[in-house]
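Troubleshooting log. The previous structure file for this entry was overwritten by mistake, so regenerating from the original sequence record. Sequence copied from the archived sheet and checked twice against the printout by T.R.
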Amino acid sequence: MIGRSDIIAGYKELLDRMPESDDVISGHLTAHKNVEAFRDSIRQSQEYQTKKSLSAVNPISTAQPSTWQYGKAITPSNLDAFVACSDKLGPPGSPQVEQFWRGMQYVPETRVNQKLDPFGEEYVAQQIAVYREIARRDVDQHANEQTDFAMADHIAGANPYAHQPPTAVGMHAGRVARAIQYSGLQIGDRILDMGCGWGTSCELMAFCGLEVTGLDINPRFVELVNARAKRIGHKVNAILGSFENIPGDELYDAALYYESLHHAIKPWETLSLVNSRLKPGGKLMLAGEPVNDIWKHWGIRTDPISVYCIRKFGWFESGWSADFISKCVKRCGFEIDHFAEETGAIGWVMIARKPG
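Regenerated output below.
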């Protein structure tokens, strides 16, 4: 006999990752009569054979093809080789991939005039052109910002991430907790969690005594957040929506963007919409967002993990200078109460307030 836990254990031991989705798990349960037959099929897969061969040699020398003729630069000509080599070495965050990526940066061919108005359509169009150069597709967040996963495991997990190491979960919890700490919110306040994703931020805010509405563009995430809230008993309700469309007309005491605002093409538009959905004195909370100096104002991030996600998944990955995101928030009608760099590459926390 073979069960769901056998499939997950086999993937983790032999491939060092989780199965892609419930459909993949169900496929194995149908195809294999026992555990050994399933494990044999994994050992015969190209992914396992590649992983096995790479472990026998220096992964960096094996991974770097001749297209790496310009040192550590990622360019349009070696972009697909960069993604393929990264996948051969392991998932993002693994030691082999981190070593391979160290010092790399993408060098775009698209020219961007950084003297243009960063809020203007011409500048936005040039940054979208950089995105298209990397993604090799058009911007379509309803199609590209989707994630499939094994739903049952994440519903039952100790946390929504289910299989991330405690160090990673602790990092996420710490960032959200500090945003709550600086917010000045009270028990029972109603929070809009914009781009709530897996729902970890929803659960942490509910744990702190807040009533949470999570919003996400991915119906699978909405289903996950609501299923976990029902199981745990948290005051969390997730709804399907987007940065451009917040269902309903109620006003909230605060809105949080955790690792999500950088997916907005024009963050000033979603921030203006959120401002209209906050009560006078309502709080804007930003945490885990990429504040950097890659561009003078804002633009597509060119670090390895961002380039990898743009090319492989089509995600829109932007970042902003501290000066620009401050101007952006103020432009949308907020007054900044707290803005400081926390631990980690995207550890900034900002708390702003709607006057009134």
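The longest helix spans residues 166-183. Archived copy saved in two places this time.
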